Amino acid sequence: MSRLRDKGWVLPVSIILALLLGLLPLPELLQPLRPYWLALVLAYWVIEAPERVGLGVAFSCGVIADLLYGGVLGEQALRLVMLTFILQRFRARIRFFPMSQQMLAIGGLLFNDRIVSAVVHIAVGEPTLPWSYWWAPLLGMALWPLAFVLLDAVRFGRRGR
C-alpha cells in the first residue's frame, strides 16, 4: 500500500515551480503562448487530491502570483478560485474522463479563465490582452496530459521502465 501514498513535498514544490515558470522570460513572439502553469498545477491537485487543495490554497496561490507577476491585485486569486470551484463541483466526473475529454474540460476552464481576466481588466480600466493571448489556453490544453502524467509520476515515485 505504500505505493499509493504520495510524497508531501510534491505539492508545494510543484506550486513554486509553476510560479517560477510564470516568471520565466520569453521572447516577445512566444509571450502570448505562455500557458497558465499555476492553473494547470492547481487543476491537477484539485482533481487528484481535493483534501489537500481547495479554495483557500487557490486564493493564497493567486495572491502570491498577483504579487509576483504584478497587475491587478486579486485578479489571479479570483481566477484561480473560480477555476478551483468549478473543478471541485465537477471533480467526480472529470476525474474519470478519458484523457482526451479531460483535455477538453481543462481547455474550457482555461478559456473561461481568459474571459474572467478580460472582464476584470475591463472593469478596472486596464488594457485587455491582445487577441494573440487567446492561443495560450489551447497550448495549456495540449500540455495537460504531460503535466498530469509528470505530476502523477513524481507524486507516487513511479519510474519509466
Automatic annotation (TrEMBL):
It is found in: Cell inner membrane; Cell membrane. The keyword Cell membrane applies. Keywords: Cell inner membrane, Cell membrane, Cell shape, Membrane, Transmembrane, Transmembrane helix. The chain crosses the membrane at residues 9-27, 53-73, 94-111, 131-151. It is a multi-pass membrane protein. Its main location: membrane. InterPro entries: Cell_shape_determining_MreD (IPR007227), MreD_proteobac (IPR026034). It comes from the Bacteria. Belongs to the MreD family. Involved in formation of the rod shape of the cell. May also contribute to regulation of formation of penicillin-binding proteins. This is Rod shape-determining protein MreD. It comes from Stenotrophomonas oahuensis. The gene is mreD.
